[in-house]
Amino acid sequence: MSTIFDDENVLHKGLVPPQKALGLVLKDATSIDVESVDLLHCNGRVLAEDISAQRTQPPFDASAMDGYAVRQADVTATPCDLKIIGQSAAGHAFQGRIKKGEAVRIFTGAPIPLGADTIIIQENTKAPPQEKGRGIGFHICVLSAEAKGKFIRPAGLDFSEGQVLLNKDQVLNPQSISLAASMNHASLPVFKKPNVAILATGDELVLPGSTLEASQIIASNTYGIAAIAKEAGANVLNLGIANDTFDDLKNIISDAINNGSDLIVTSGGASVGDHDLVKPVMESLGFVFSFIKIAMKPGKPVIFGRTIIDGKERRFLGLAGNPVSSLVSSHIFLKPLIQLLAGKPPEFVKQIEATITQPLEANGDREDYMRGFATRMPNGEIETEAFTKQDSSMLATLNRANCLIIRQVDAKKLNIGDKTPIILLQNI
């Protein structure tokens, strides 16, 4: 076990501004490991290299319509009758060659027969009066002709063998996965998902579904944090609940690291009380801390550190135990970190401007992320209102919120109609 970091990663003991903290969290975060993944499991993954086509599409000149393949020279004057000598269907090409006065019944996607250079759509044909069918051996009456080459998809219309169509660092979606399959790739090289282990701490915690005794509460934070981590692109390991003892914490976290966890996320125990053991435990495991407190609310007691174990960098993010604090911090710090570790471009929390509909008092020395509700007005502008109660334990309030109203450090009092930055938690 070793820790090798530059001077910028020494501990910042004071309250670190959120943007500076985010920069420290994301410093040097990148994905290196690559794996080959079946196409069925590639959605949302990130390509680790450029991908070229292993075939040409379409591989042959093909019909774009149902109708008849003919020679343009035979239909310069219409109406005219042509003899049907066969048919060409997808997967069942006509094997002969069309000669003067002949036609081949053809279907969408079928190969164009040799000798043909024009498709007559079936709506522009009819059986001659003296014949009752349109099959092989019968004739077809061409009522009007198309331009030469119309309704013919030339070989390579979509792409050609060797052409690079998917690029490194591209986030795969249903369209690109279908294209990869058409390019004749059964699997793709993608960056590995980071393994994120999540641990709740506290003797008072029990799992959802439990019968609670006096002084016990539900360990709810893990599930919200895990949802954010998975959505960002991580494999999530739920470490359960650790007792408030140094040995229990250390054993659980050590096992997670030994089992390949790239990032350890804890909830609770990140402050400086007698039962807040997360920091000393992580120090004993060799982690070097960048900061232990952030100038924001909710979410002041956030710890971030790194270490190198067996030649591989491991990261640690310690979140507050208050439910709202842990989720707000996860949106701002955990999500972009995981995206970078998964090879994705980080989706930083975007701030937009909104008009407040009730006064907001002046803010203090910590950036405040107030829960609120935003409404898009008919003119396109956004109005927002902060909830009256902002306690960091109130999950029901966070559930009702669709935005976070940002009150910057030492922000002045705002009156109705003033503007303020907000972060949307969902589309409105």
What brief labels describe this structure?
elongated, 6-stranded mixed β-sheet, 428 residues, Molybdenum Cofactor Biosythetic Enzyme, Chain A, Molybdopterin biosynthesis moeA protein, domain 3, 18% helix, alpha/beta, Molybdopterin biosynthesis moea protein, domain 2, 4 domains, single chain
Q: What would your notes on this structure say?
A:
This protein has four domains: 7-33 and 192-341, Molybdenum Cofactor Biosythetic Enzyme, Chain A; 37-57 and 158-191, Alpha-Beta Complex (Molybdopterin biosynthesis moea protein, domain 2), CATH 3.90.105; 62-153, Molybdopterin biosynthesis moea protein, domain 3 (Molybdopterin biosynthesis moeA protein, domain 3, Beta Complex); 351-424, Beta-clip (Beta Barrel). The protein has seven helices and 26 strands. Helices cover 18% and strands 29% of the residues. The strands form seven sheets. Strands 7-4-6-5-9-8 form a six-stranded mixed β-sheet, with no helix packed on it. Helix 1 (18-26) runs parallel beside helix 6 (323-341), helix 3 (221-232) runs parallel beside helix 6 (323-341) and helix 4 packs across helix 5 (278-284). It has 428 residues and is α/β, with parallel strands linked by helices. It has helices spanning 18-26, 174-182, 221-232, 246-258, 278-284, 323-341, 395-400, and strands at 34-38, 51-52, 62-63, 67-70, 80-88, 102-106, 118-121, 125-126, 139-142, 152-153, 164-166, 187-191, 195-201, 205-206, 217-218, 235-242, 263-267, 288-291, 296-297, 303-309, 312-319, 351-356, 367-376, 382-386, 403-407, 419-424.
